[in-house]
Amino acid sequence: xxxxxxxxxxxxxxxxxxxxxxxxxxxxxxxxQMLAQGFRQVGDDFPVFLHPKSGEEYxxxxxxxxxxxxxxxxTFHTSPDVTLEEDLLRRxxxxxxxxxxDDGTLYDPYGGQADLTARVLRHVSPAFAExxxxxxxxxxxxxxxxxxxxxxxxxxxxxxRQLSESGELQHLTPERIWQEFARALMExxxxxxxxxxxxxxxLKALLPEVDALFGVPQPAEHHPExxxxxxxxxxLQQCARFQHTLNIRWACLLHDxxxxxxxxxxxxxxxxxxxxxxxxxxxxxKRFKAPNDCAQLALLVGEYHTHAHRALELRPATLLKLLxxxxxxxxxxxxxxxxxxxxxxxxxxxxFEDRFYPQADYLRGAA
Length: 367
What we know:
48% of the residues lie in helices and 10% in strands. The chain folds into two domains: 2-117, 2-Layer Sandwich (Beta Polymerase, domain 2); 207-366, Hypothetical protein af1432 (Orthogonal Bundle). The longest helix has 18 residues, at 292-309. 40% of the residues are buried. It is an alpha+beta fold.
């Protein structure tokens, strides 16, 4: 029996990042041997065991074979004969396909360390294309490591493009899609996640309402960046800059969906885009099974963000209606989140990133 540290723990250790979760792979062992040493088996699909003291996961080395659609459409094979190289071959990216022995020896059969040095996210094998969830995972890794200059390898991006066009992404469950989006939106560069998805066609497949915003112009006097899609990316950047919560980031991602329905002959104006976007926001929330706090804030920000921008001009009666719409007495935090999202919308414009937003203090005072 041989035990190796694998995956993200090895990757982050080599990058000098804090290692939060450690995964282990066990080569040359049977489930009976693991149980005899006090490990507790969990999971029904393949043998994973929890260490009796640390609680960390130890998985028996295994291989995978595609047997159906989606990320769960695999048949797993595990036995003492499965080698470390065979186990690492089934992983998504070379930077995640490294292992380390107890004595510190690094096992890197697929060039992960070289790709770490080159700042490249590259698939391990053509089997990458068998799991559509990997499209979202790679985009999320691109967002996580953007600050280090990582990029997706061209050949990997091509496989992601093929997966996006194949219809395989539609076989992912809403819960798994939401999980990846939620994790990616909370990275320090969530805009990179959206951009990578757009570059490979996955955004059009999974979130066409946001994809439709790219190329839609806005009035340059209010939006020097002009392109609505670019504006959304900038707003997400500001959300990360101010370390906002997931519900605020989700609301900011969806707040301008109505602009994607404006007829081209009306560009760059988007009259009543707030109301026109509500049905789309509801549709996305339902499709993604977004949690209530995220779904509700997205609808409120979508409908009322321009009220926030015009707060200093609102009549008292209109301001009162705004406060009532948010159930301000019972839900004060929701109104605070709305103010934060509206400020990020304002700051997410070219040249406005550091511009003071007096409406925020005014609305807080009114509440």
